[in-house]
Amino acid sequence: MKFYVTTPIYYINAEPHIGHCYTTIAADCLARYHRIKGRNVFFLTGTDEHGDKIAQAADRKGITVEQFTDSMSDVFKTIWKKLNISYNRFIRTTEKEHQETVQNVFRILMDRGDIYPGEYSGYYCVHCEFFIPKTKIEQNNPVCPDCKRPVKVLAEKSYFFRLSKYEKPLLEYFSKNPEMIQPVFRQDEVKNFISQGLTDLSITRQTALWGIESPTPERYSVYVWFDALLNYLTGIGFKNGIPGEYWPPDVQLIGKDILRFHTIIWPAMLMALKLPLPEKIFAHGWWTMGSEKMSKSRGNIINPIDLLNRYGTDGFRYFLLREVPFGLDGEYSEEKFIKRYNSELVNDLSNLVNRTINLVEKLFNSTFPDSGISTQMEQLIDDVLSAVDLCMLNISFTDALDNIWKIVNELNRLLDREKPWNSPIESARNTISQCISGIYIISMLVYPFIPETSRRIWNMLNIKYEDDKIFLNKDALRMVSGRKSGKREILFMRIKP
Q1: Which whole number is the average pLDDT over 363-370?
Q2: Cα 411 to Cα 440: distance, rounded to the nearest angstrom
Q3: What integer is the mean pLDDT of 472-479?
Q4: CB proximity list for 354: less than 8 A, separation 6 or greater
Q5: Does residue 371 register a pLDDT over 70?
Q6: Is a pLDDT exceeding 70 seen at residue 370?
């Protein structure tokens, strides 16, 4: 069974920020979870490297656009490595393979009459790389309705995609497939926008500084969004109008600011290509400081590298996936980060593992006792496994972690209640055996969220796993008795506020 998950390809006019990290960590969590469930996973991410903003950024640095795109793409790859992002393919829109895909799709849609020549007259936002209908602009204040920056007035010959043709088919499709656009409250936003009427989309630019050439006599540059959206096909080997084995995407994760591109233009392009639409497009919220979205222009950007250096990769990953329900806006503050880190990672998880392994060392000469677990604990684990599976299918990371922590909390209560350090040896053996089995299953469950931590737990349990040999099932409860524990270490150290 396959599972194809994508992030947007990130625009490289600036370095990665917390929003880029959020989407990519979420996709990585899904990819890792479905891998340990035994599915054939393909995880695609990458960089969007065309458009006027890229050429302008390169010019400001005094380097060629090729040098700029190479260096910025490497910046994203470096941070994804630090974040343990397990992508299968990192695509760049400057790749020859992608250029061929874009030109191939352009030809197919021209042959079908879905792309035609015409003339564009209206407004264009360079920052958003978006053509804006005159009806969306206040004539006495010509600014982009989304980013509020001044817009350019364009009048030029162009090629158009017949977006208007797919107005009714899109509405019908969303009505028949209500699970496609997530969270559910985003569906009305999309439907209302479509219901106001779709106009054909200009998909070439005469004056673009940097882009893929259209396969037309004029060789106009292809509109950057038409180019970028097709990466999802290039990434899995689109050839001769046929996508690769992983099509269609099971989950496409995006920020809410690019919802319309992915739920209107993208599905319309796929309908024109006569290809199946994505199973689910999930738009998450923004991270804010106070009531403001983080942005470079506001000067309230949180540098991900600073947080990684101060709190570690898994602390960073955990906070982003745990703090707010995926799909809603989340407010970042140092106080919130430290409180959750100390409470859940230090007091709950790290403390549980440390004192359990410590008791194995002291009471059983660093040898794990016979594996065993109570009926009550086994039922709790069964319930958690089922609940986590449902949460991950619904892309609800906070709820998944809530359920995993039921086992963490129950094992901590078990240790506090039974006090194995003061109990008869057989009673202690039973308590520690349950804790070891429980920690083992916890280590499997948290692996998609905080993979470094899982590996450190496995080292203490003296278990070795290759990435493609990790499978989540009830067998994880059956520890082999007589195995020596590995070197004990503290998973998370308390942060002083």
Answers
A1: 90
A2: 12
A3: 68
A4: 488, 490, 491
A5: no
A6: yes
- Closest alpha carbon to 448 in 464, 472, 476, 478: 472
Could you state, in order of their start, the residue ranges of all structural domains in the chain? 334-477
Please answer whether residues 27 and 5 qualify as being in contact, where contact means their C-beta atoms are separated by less than 8 angstroms: yes
42: its two tokens:
């393909």
Quickly count: other Cβ atoms within 10 Å of residue 143's Cβ.
15
Helices and strands counted in the chain (H then E): 18, 15
- With vertex at residue 410, the alpha carbon angle to CA 485 and CA 33, rounded to the nearest 5 degrees, is 70
Question: Bridge-partner residues for 154, per DSSP?
Answer: 122
* Spatial distance between the Cα atoms of 261 and 267, rounded to a whole number of angstroms: 9
* Superfamily of 334-477 according to CATH: Isoleucyl-tRNA Synthetase; Domain 1 (1.10.730.10)
Tell me the pLDDT tens digit for each residue of 397-445. 999 999 999 999 999 999 999 999 999 999 999 999 999 999 999 999 9
The residue whose two tokens read 């990790």 is: 470
Tokens of 366: 């660093």
The first and second tokens of residue 368, run together, are: 């794990």
pLDDT band with cut points at 50, 70 and 90 for residue 45: very high
DSSP 358-398: HHHHHHHTTBPPPP---HHHHHHHHHHHHHHHHHHHTT-HH
Closest CA to 106 of 277, 276, 272: 272
Distance CA 249, CA 5 (A): 6
- Among 418, 397, 416, which Cα is nearest to 408's? 416
Expressed in angstroms, the distance from the first to the final Cα of the chain is 46
Question: What DSSP string describes 187-209?
Answer: HHHHHHHHHT---PEE-EESS-S
Report the mean per-residue pLDDT for the chain: 92
